[in-house]
Amino acid sequence: MGSTSEFNRRDLVKRAAALGIVAVPAMSMLSACAGGGGDDDNKVEKGKKSAKNPLAVNESAGLDVVIFDGGFGDKYAKDAQGEYVKSFPKADGKVKLSSTQKIQSTLQPRFNGGNPPDLVDNSGAEQMDFGTLVAKDQLTDLSALLDAPSVDDPGKKVRDTLRPGVVEMGQFGGKETWILYYAYTVYGVWYSKSNLQKLDAEYPETWDDMLALCAKAKKKGVAGWTYPGKYPYYLPFSLYPFIAKIGGAEVLRKIDNLEPNAWKDPAVKAAFDAYYELYKKGYVLKGSPGLDHLQSQKAWAEGKALFIPNGSWVENESAKQIAKNPHFGLAVGAPSSLSASDKMPYGTIWASGGEPYIVPRKARNAEGGMELLRIMLSKKSSQNFIKQVSSLTSLNGGTEGLTLPPGLASAQVALQKAGQNIVNPRLQDWYVALQKERIGVGALGEMMAGRMTPDEAIKKIQKYADDTRDDSSVKKYKR
């Protein structure tokens, strides 16, 4: 996610197309990746492997990097590029780093032509479908990077310096690791402590308290919630861990695995009913169904709504609005407890890798692409990222000596409180079109706009999941 601005977050797909279940743009990547030309003859010769060059990078070869220009920007990557040139001065002037919000439309012709970049930050609305990329053998296995010594401690492999679950997120049913998630995102219900204090309130740990606080806010002319109605796949950032809290992590596992009737679990119904009640009681900011991510975040940051489902990139992405209130007190809350019968404790939260990096299989300088990632996973580059964009990286630790901004500090506390109760749904990276266009726009967005009941939304989503499971052209994954 980070700026997976995520990771999957800047969807320009039209509502009509989404409701018609046209998988644009993800499905177009099927043909794009299937027909890529070129061959291994285009690859640069490897360099000499050494302690300082464990991946055998060709020291004088060029390097081509494309970064998603979202909530995290690209300065952190450019800074890491500078470190790369310091390590390989013969490559100075040959390292090209460009950024775009249109990853797929920019890179699809290059994948087709067999001349993709050496490293890609595959994020945003035009994120290329990972399931398709893996199924069509378009990615380089990153095991060589993971087994290389870390920059900071040559006695440790890179894989041993990463946060739990990061390596597994990049795997698709085998030992190969196709994706390296660079950012580490905490998802949940984001709010301003000062805005709650104005209502003499703290973050509500039960759903009854949430509804009572929203009612109190409504009397003051403040909405309880807002969300990006144009991109309603933000709703799962708090809704999915809410489902897990109510029914247990097993419910999300069944959903990820596309099991029959997984969406008909009572925990899903309970969670949907709770969110629908926000709409029915008028606790959602008017006009939210027509807002994009920036508009909803702006309204929330200006105090027009108390809560917004989001990821930890929101601190950087809303920095200008938040800065107008020096006492804002940005914080993240875990899903409120629905009842005493919830299967998981309060504090259960969704946290996982975000900002997914890939090295295309036909990259000319795959070793250079992996080396830049190795540099980015150093403590120096990680701390630079944290300071610039107020988000953690996948490096386990790396915050020593840093003064964390309020939102990131709150995210750290949330992680500590959650302990082992951290969930990591895989639907959004295994089945992008299903998650975004069908579940998000086609059902959740309709429900929260009042155009569909929870029962209707569940029935529709279950059919979408069944159709995906039964579609032989879509590769399936299990957890």
Helical/strand content category: alpha/beta
Biggest beta sheet summary: 10 strands, mixed
Number of helices: 21
State the helicity in percent bands: 40-55%
Mean pLDDT: 91
> Into which percentage range does the β-strand content fall?
5-15%
Q: Kindly, what is the distance between the CA atoms of the first and last residues, rounded to a whole number of angstroms?
A: 20 Å
Tell the overall outline.
Answer: globular
How many E-type strands? 12
Rounded Rg: 22 Å
Uncertain segments are 1-38
List the helices and strands and how they pair.
Layout: E1 3-4, E2 6-7, H1 15-19, H2 28-34, E3 63-68, H3 75-87, E4 95-100, H4 103-113, E5 119-121, H5 130-135, H6 143-146, H7 166-169, E6 180-192, H8 193-197, H9 207-219, E7 223-225, H10 236-247, H11 249-256, H12 266-280, H13 293-301, E8 305-311, H14 314-317, H15 319-323, E9 330-333, E10 349-358, H16 366-376, H17 379-389, E11 392-393, H18 406-418, E12 422-423, H19 427-430, H20 432-448, H21 454-470
Parallel strand pairs: 1-2, 3-4, 3-5, 7-8, 10-12
Antiparallel strand pairs: 5-10, 6-8, 6-9, 6-10, 6-11
Family: Belongs to the bacterial solute-binding protein 1 family.
Signal peptide: 1-34
Keywords: Signal, Transport
